[in-house]
Amino acid sequence: MEEFDYLSSGEEEEDCESLDGIESDDQRWTSTSLSSTQVITEESLLAAQVEDLHRVMDLLTVREQHARTLLIYHRWDIDRLIAAFVEKGREWLFSEAGVTMVESRNSASSWSSSPIMCEICIEEVPPNSVTTMDCGHCFCNDCWTEHFIVKINDGQSKRVRCMAHKCNAICDEDIVRKLVSEKNPSIADRFKRFLLESYIEDNKKVKWCPSVPHCGNAIRVDGDAYCEVECTCGKQFCFSCSLEAHSPCSCPMWDLWVKKCQDESESVNWMTANTKPCPKCNKPVEKNGGCNLVSCICGQPFCWLCGGATGRDHTWSSIAGHSCGRYNAADKAKRAETDLYRYMHYYNRFKGHMDSLTLETKLKASIQEKVSIVESKNFGNKDYSWVINGLYRLFRSRRVLSYSYPFAFYMFGEDLFGDDMTEKIREMKKNLFEDQQQQLESHVEKLSSLLEEKFDEFTEEKIRDLRMHVINFSVSVDGLCLKMYECIENDLLGPLQHAIHNIAPYNSKGIEKASELPIFQDTSANLKSTKITGANNALPRASTTNEKRATDSSQPSSSGLLRESSSMDENICSTRKRSRKDGRGDTLIDLNLPTWVVDKNGF
Amino acid sequence: MTSTSAQSRKTLSKIACNRLQKELAEWQVNPPAGFKHKVTDNLQRWVIEVTGASGTLYTGELYQLQVDFPEHYPMEAPQVIFLPPAPAHPHIYSNGHICLDILYDSWSPAMTVSSICISILSMLSSSTVKQRPVDNDRYVKNCRNGRSPKETRWWFHDDKV
Fold it and tell me: Per-residue confidence at B9, pLDDT binned at 50, 70, 90?
């Protein structure tokens, strides 16, 4: 388990008496600097990959398209690419990825004026209508075009191979685009988009924002993939699993929980009536006939009457070495019932806190109203940011509290860690955790009640008092959240063998807002490209150094290529993910709201 | 054994037509040894007779290959199967499907019917035992409703045979 760098650790003032210390709490909700997560929009998609492309281009002195081929092959993992280069060498790296460069080859058309035989269509064609690929294979343009279109339609845009038998070379993307656009510009466009979007689709550091309808953005995370992010569209999600932000639940826990909540409501009744949990894997098993020896799909045989594990030897009326009386059978049925009650216990608390959060979001408007009333009273202190900060703290901790229940359900249940802890240790850890949870819970409730005070009717002195309390509880709630995470990290998940349960670290500030990726000024000129007119529709280039690249690609034009192509989306790529253009405004409140609250209230 | 795959039912593209006419013409002048094209007026489906090469397990045996061409031949691979009875071979299923990489993943537009035929004959000739693939029954059962071999995820056997 990794050490987490808690962003808040420096700000954990215990001396809440000093009001100056608290004022810095302000910064927590607004600061977006030093963000390790970035939003990649349609416009910045190329700029986002330019850095990677340039690194590869400089390292291996190759052209951009070869750098792209290499990067796509290595799934945009530069470190892996460089490791392969260092370990196995340039030649291996290139041939593996399908980058072939035949040196100092004369283009067939330049020295020959006699017709050339294309081996694909078996026709003689004039030398000006053939194309030789980097690998040296030469075929007629009609055949190339047909080949490209078939491959693009087949979804293989990212690795269009040469047509020659056993040739592993990836075709030059400029040639593909040029030839295809002469025959079918929309397919050429799709090809270009596929190449560009490879940076999102094939890159574990980048994911589409899961908003629905889709905002068109993707998010890049440079650090730990176990984190929660907020897109500029306002959608908050877990970067690791693309579901809603659910820390301190791990992704597998949340996945199980969501399914459980969906299934449970309808099937709980049926299941309790018709199934028994397998004594080994705990899956509910239904008996659909036969004797009382039931076999779970995990292989474990058990007695249907008492639910206890048995051997396989049995007759119609008895199981070898096993006997159970009626009394026990009832006992076990109770156990299944307990399982359900256990789930309900956690679910009700999870849901309860979510419901409170929904109600508390409504507080914001009334609080703002109260603040403006108090402001008009001209008291000494005119700064009321503490109310809003307290509210944000409430939202933040309410979420943590809420998600801590599904976490506890799995952490101390049998489903995931049944074999990882002894009963005694489990009980001990559960108590430890529940102590923390309860403490947090009571402070959160207190903070909530403080924020509901009708302070607009208070005297100046009473407001000073309330301010102190709100600030104190804000700080203590933050500290308690942090402690709970430390407990989870160090005492609960940390000691486990399999490290699949990673959780997004606690961030005092709330879910990190991804910052906008700048579209570099110096490259933006080259980003523009000509309209697709055939010969000049090179992929937008970002190079400023390489002359060769600059000359063939820096054709000025009135509009950016990426923008142009977006108009084709709806028709050609109905499944592509560019639809909603209207980003939500910069309202601050969404920082800590659960997504459904955000959606409902249309913040 | 007719493929239900939609693509092979579509009529041939212009490129495919031209190319197939050229291939047929070339075949008539210079057919691959051991093969005989059964003349029909259907350019999109060829039936080819194969004679087992002498000195091999299949010496003198006669089999029939059926080659169906897709709309975008040769950019797309043709579908090649043995018509029943298919030769007993570790890479040939009893329903006539052939496990040979060039017919699927390794197909290249530069290959021709002739070159496919030669590969298949060489595959037959190098066999040391007349037997079906180990997973024959399972595979054939899965293909019962006329599935095309091109829809199979092939896991190619060793290339020694």
Answer: low
- Identify each DSSP E strand in A406-508 by its residue range: none
Phi, psi angle pair for A557, to nearest 5°? -155, 170
Residue among A315, A312, A309 at smallest CA distance from A332: A309
**Cβ-defined contact of A120 to B109 (cutoff 8 Å):** yes
DSSP state letter for A528: B
Rounded to the nearest 5°, which phi and psi values hold at A34? 60, 30
- The dihedrals phi and psi of B62, each to the nearest 5 degrees, come to -110, 130
- Bridge-partner residues for A130, per DSSP? A140
Task: Name beta bridge partners: A284.
Answer: A277
Chain B window 72-111: which residues touch A at a Cβ cutoff of 8 Å? Answer: 72, 74-76, 106, 108-111
Give dist(CA A537, CA A288) in Å, integer.
Answer: 65
Enumerate the residues of chain A whose CB falls inside 8 A of the CB of residue B106.
166
DSSP state, B96? S
For residues A423 and B159, give the distance between their C-alpha atoms in angstroms, rounded to a whole number.
Answer: 56
Q: Residue A116, Cα to own-chain centre: how many angstroms?
A: 52
Q: Summarize pLDDT for A60-92 with one digit per residue, the tens.
A: 999 899 999 999 999 999 999 999 999 999 999
Strands A293-295 and A130-132: unpaired
pLDDT of residue A289: 67
**Known catalytic residue at B99:** yes
A contact set with B (CB within 8 A): 119-123, 142-143, 146-147, 150-151, 163-167
Q: Does B13 touch chain A (CB under 8 A)?
A: yes
Residue A172: both structure tokens together:
């030059």
Cα distance between residue A419 and residue B107, in whole Å: 51
Two structure tokens written together for B49: 């007779």
Count of beta carbons in the 10 Å neighbourhood of residue A559: 11
Token pair 């523009």 in the structure block, residue? A528
User: In this structure, are strands A206-208 and A123-125 parallel, antiparallel, or unpaired?
Assistant: unpaired
Strand (E) or helix (H) holding B116: helix B113-125
Max CA distance (Å), chain A: 99
What pLDDT digit, counting tens, does each position of B16-38 carry?
999 999 999 999 999 999 999 98
A-B contacts at Cβ under 8 angstroms: 41
The minimal CB distance from A146 to the residues B23, B75, B106 is found for B75
Buried b (16+ CB within 10 A) or exposed e, A359-389: ebbebbeebeebbeebeeeeeeeeebebbbb
- Rounded to whole angstroms, the Cα distance separating A417 from A326 reads 31
Please calculate the CA angle A57-A60-A65 and round it to the nearest 5 degrees.
45
- Paired with B82 in beta bridges are B65
Count of beta carbons in the 10 Å neighbourhood of residue B90? 19
Residue linked to tokens 């050229």: B22
Q: Is A157 helix (H, G, I), strand (E, B) or coil?
A: helix
Q: Is the predicted pLDDT of residue B157 greater than 80, yes or no?
A: no
Name the helix (H) or strand (E) containing A273.
Answer: helix A251-274
Beta-carbon neighbour count of residue A326 at 10 Å?
9
* Dihedral angle of Cα A561, A566, A569, A573, to the nearest 10 degrees: 50
Residues 6+ apart with CB under 8 A from A254: A238, A241, A243, A246, A403, A406
Are the C-beta atoms of residues A242 and A592 closer than 8 Å to each other? no
pLDDT (0 to 100) of residue A274: 72
Token pair belonging to B103: 């017919």
Chain B residues with CB inside 8 Å of A150's CB?
Answer: 72, 75-76
Two tokens at A473?
A: 């509880």
Task: Report the relative pairing of strands A130-132 and A138-140 from DSSP bridges.
Answer: antiparallel
Better pLDDT: A498 or B36: B36
Residue with tokens 């056993």: A166
Pick left, alpha or beta for residue A585 (phi over 0 → left; psi -120 to 50 → alpha; otherwise beta): beta
Strand pairing report for B35-38 and B45-51 = antiparallel
Which of A115-124, A359-368, A537-546, B135-144 shows the highest mean pLDDT?
A115-124
